[in-house]
Amino acid sequence: MEDDDAELWVRVRQGDELALAALFDRYEGRLFRHASRLLSHREDAKDAVTVAFFELWRKRASVRLVEGSPLPWLVNTVAHCARNLERSGRRYRALLDRAPVAEMAVTPSGHDDSGVLAALKRLPEREQAVVVLAVLEGYAEREVAQVLGIPAGTVKSRLARAKAKLRNDITLEGARS
Q1: Confidence band (pLDDT; 50, 70, 90) for 91?
Q2: What's the confidence (pLDDT) of residue 108?
Q3: pTM, whole model, 2 decimals?
Q4: Residue 107: CB partners within 8 Å, gap ≥ 6?
Q5: How far apart are CA 112 and CA 87, in angstroms?
Q6: CATH 1.10.10.10 corresponds to the domain 112-177
Q7: Is 107 left (phi over 0), alpha (psi -120 to 50) or beta?
Q8: Is CATH 3.30.70.1230 what the domain over 1-110 is classified as, yes or no?
Q9: Which residues form the signal peptide (predicted)?
Q10: What pLDDT score does 19 carry?
């Protein structure tokens, strides 16, 4: 983390909204790309990032930093927000399906040719968080353990389990094609 990031975080902890805005400007693009990988709709990805920053502000006194950076915490929070948005979207679509409407427009969704993102979304939340932080975002296992508040050994076992599930899932998907 750059020196001015450390200064920004101190200011955020003291309630400085401009410091939060500076962190938002610095991390928003990366977090948006991450949310876009998990969600089908661009607007939902924007919402996930926005909610994560609201949560960062709300929980600023208890956020776990990794090497002085709130980014891993934000990445994990964006993933949680994305899952919540997907869940609420499914409930909303189910409600629309039951509504007495003569004809409904079909919403286009993004397509994942490789099936990797679909397989990732099917993982349990705990394993998905470890994969996202360790594999997609490139954090070391000890950093992932720190941000998730779990032992490093648990990170290793969840990561191994998740990789095996992904491998099997993608192999089965490829065999069906």
Answers
A1: confident
A2: 43
A3: 0.62
A4: 93
A5: 19
A6: yes
A7: beta
A8: no
A9: none
A10: 94
